[in-house]
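User: My instructor asked us to take a sequence, write out its structure as tokens, and then describe one feature of it. I'm not sure where to start. Here is the sequence I was given:
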Amino acid sequence: MPFTVDAPAVPGPDRGLNRCGAVTDHMFEVMRRGGADMSQLGVPDRRTDTSEGEVWDKIAVPKGRARRVAWKKSIEDAAHQEYLPFRFFTGPLKLDANQKPQTLQNWVNSLVEAKRSGARPDTLNMIIPGPIGSGKTAGACALGNEAVLAGLGALFVKHATYLTWRRPDSAPHNMKAWEVRKKFVECDLLILDELCGEMDMTATEFARRETIDLIDARISAGRPTAYTTNLRSRRQSGSPAMGVVDILGERLLSRLEASAHVAKVVGPDRRKPTKPLDW
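Assistant: Let's start with the prediction itself. The structure tokens for your sequence are:
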């Protein structure tokens, strides 16, 4: 039975009811435009607004704002708020040449292009090694700041913190252990700070399993990860210092290195006092 029938037209009440199946002038205008006018909700038209440089998907501007909030929250959870102003080339806290800003910028560009085209990035992992205090974390945070501004969803977490949060009832914000894994596996870009930090011996089975699971899951899904570390990849001849492979095993390092670029940060300890303190 059709929705409309050949029956005498009966005027609707004063409030303006429409006959079943009829297309109102308002609905006709919405269909003509191809959708609701999002500007009436305070959302710029994706077809004309380019002010924020978003990677558009569905309703992109609200998603972009949510990504920036999530990134800022992850930095705050790490107590690294002082790193939020860092940028590659602009502002009072721009990176210097030792922190490889051009290399990091090129990588961000490749990640944005890969997301736009729905492709797997050619370089999935960026390894940022360097001595203590050389500026690795500042560079990694600048990387996240720029990536979020470009429309990627980035999160920051220290390796040791991630392992702690994966234990029952140890994560903040009432997160469950499975929610912690999901959060850091599914973000567009993960900054995993201080890989193997606070580990001066072979990792426990728990630490090794959780780290391999996180890295394997991100690699399998084609999601990029940046790592900072003050360790070498392998123990150097004549040195007692352990390398990443000595702590986490050859399998993980081979997976990580299979699609990686190294941006080594060099230079003096930036946190060391310019003048020695007299104790």
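For the description part of your assignment, you could build on this observation: DSSP finds nine helices and five strands in the chain. Try explaining in your own words what that tells you about the chain.
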